[in-house]
Amino acid sequence: MQQTQARSPGRGRDPFIDVIRALCVLAVISQHWLMPVLAYENGHLSTGNALASPGWWIVTWLTQVMPMVFFAGGAANFFSFRPTKSTRVWLRSRIARLLVPVVPLAAVWLLLPHVLIGAGVPEQPVLLAGKIAGQLLWFLAVYVLVVALTPVMYGWYRRYGWRVVGVLAVCALAVDVLRFEVGPAIGFVNALFVWLAVHQIGFHYADGGLRVRSGRASAGLSAAGFGLTAVAVFFGPYPASMIGMPGAPVSNMSPPTALMLSLAVGQLGLWLTLKPVITRLAARPSVTAVLGWCGTRFMTLYLWHMPALVMTAGIAVVGLGFSTPTPGSPMWFAVAPLWVGVSGVFLVCFTRLFGRFEFRRGSGAASEMGLGKIVLAAILSAGGLLGLAAQGFIAPGNPLAPVLWVALVLAGLLVVRERTAPEVGAGQGSRLVPVQLDVHHEGARGGDVRGEDSRTEGARGGDVRTEGGRTEGGRVLARHGSG
Questions:
Q1: Would you say residue 386 has pLDDT above 90?
Q2: Residue whose C-alpha is closest to residue 110's, from 368, 402, 330, 345
Q3: CB-count exposure of residue 458 (10 Å: 0-12, 13-18, 19+)
Q4: Hey, what's the torsion of the CAs at 286, 290, 293, 296, to 10 degrees?
């Protein structure tokens, strides 16, 4: 590998990262829609996992995309943070933009389960739906903390380089040893060690340190990563599946194990091997349009794809008595496109309704704020998001618990939220989203990156513009991809 100290790869937009983030969110959505094995009888909805079928674990080595999500997030934060003039302004803006799209999700799901039960829908499937709707908020909880630590991690990157990744990897392995030898609870510490390490690898890509010289070298990197993963599974205590399976004593994801690091290396090497093909594909106008549309809606797509699945399952399984065919059977493959298509229709509707929250910005540039308040906002919001991920939006034994978790998230948002009037602009420039980049540019020196017909006037906080857009005073004013 060729390592550089302070330059980004190439010049202009980085279509490689654009495609990675789009395919990551597509993989998350499609996997979550196709995994459930559902049946409904006598008011009880039973659930299973199609990937628990014999031999299907190998699919998860490619479809478990969270390593690439945090890698892309690391590149995004590097591009955005490097030119910023104020760490506090950057943190305030970043955290607020992560939390705002959660507000409509919470508003709907705090009420909807109670409305459904009051309307006579059996309680058990409603409780399950309320839990599923909040389950994926674990990602935002961790990502908020990762964002809050970005200034520290950036400083360590500049001073210590790859040694930071090595230290984090060693810490992750040490936590795994304690997890398996002492108790499983300690494993949750790896939610920071593992994902910070992958996030840090994104720094190296953004700064040019992951430029491999040939396809053979990147293929070798992929083989090494997947090979190390296979060895750890075969000889170690790690399960073969990269997602948690029903009834399995150990999960590689909840909490994450150090195995996610070797998986990240394998996946990244594979992506780098395919980079020439991906770059040519992304240059096509139709693909560019799709990437532009998705780029302003990633958070909404992530937050609402499980409610879309809940709608499909509620109508088909609970309402019409449909049961999922045996995974892998001809009937399963025949039904899958219809199942995904209906869920997709609901997701498009949700995106049109709630996507506008992802575009909300203050009417002026973000202002300074005390670091203590920013840290408080990160802790409050992360705690609330973790509570919702663990309990869901309805808890029969403690009905006030979801309200408390949402209140913590809102409290964190109110601490960092700008007091200026919000602005809604469909199709504005890139947004910070769970899977990824505000902007991905190659050749971004000092973060001042220009696309065609764009210009920068006093850009602050590393806001990035798309083609045909411009940045003024830290605000993105884009003229493409209206949605």
A1: yes
A2: 402
A3: exposed
A4: -130
For 211, the 3-state DSSP assignment is strand
Q: What is the pLDDT of residue 80?
A: 87
- What amino acid occupies position 277? V
Give the C-alpha separation, 128 to 123, whole Å. Answer: 9
- Kindly tell me the number of DSSP H helices and DSSP E strands found in the chain: 17, 9
User: How many Cβ atoms are within 10 Å of 374's Cβ, its own excluded?
Assistant: 22
Distances (CA, A) of 355 to 28, 64, 407, 428: 18, 25, 22, 12
Identify the top-confidence range among 50-54, 209-213, 378-382, 461-465: 378-382
Question: Cα separation of 333 and 327, whole Å?
Answer: 8
One-letter amino acid identity for 192? L
Which two three-digit tokens encode residue 435?
A: 């899977």
What are the distances in angstroms from CA 481 to CA 26, 279, 299, 426? 18, 20, 16, 8
3-state secondary structure of 471: strand
Cα gap 134→349, rounded to integer Å: 19
Residue 242 Cα to chain centre, angstroms:
16
Chain position carrying tokens 């210009």: 455
Q: Please count the CA atoms within 13 angstroms of the CA of 112 that sit on its side-chain side.
A: 20
Query: Higher confidence at residue 403 or residue 399?
Result: 403
Strand boundaries in 290-380, DSSP class E: 361-362
pLDDT band at 247 (very low <50, low <70, confident <90, very high): confident
Cα dihedral sign, 217-65-52-38 = negative
- The letter for the amino acid at 288 is T
CA distance 92 to 89: 5
Element at 217 (helix H, strand E): helix 215-235
* Per-residue model confidence as pLDDT tens digits over 29-69: 999 999 999 999 988 999 999 998 888 999 999 999 999 99
Report the alpha-carbon angle 233-239-245, nearest 5. 155
Per-residue pLDDT tens over the stretch 416-446: 886 543 443 333 333 433 333 333 333 333 3
Cα–Cα distances (Å) from 364 to 13, 135, 195, 449, 462, in that order, read: 26, 34, 33, 21, 15
- Verdict on whether the full-model pTM lies above 0.85: no
The amino acid occupying position 315 is I
Number of other residues whose CB lies within 10 A of the CB of residue 56:
16
CB atoms within 10 A of CB 274: 17
435, 25 in Cβ contact below 8 A? yes
CA distance 33 to 309: 6
pLDDT of the residue at 158: 94
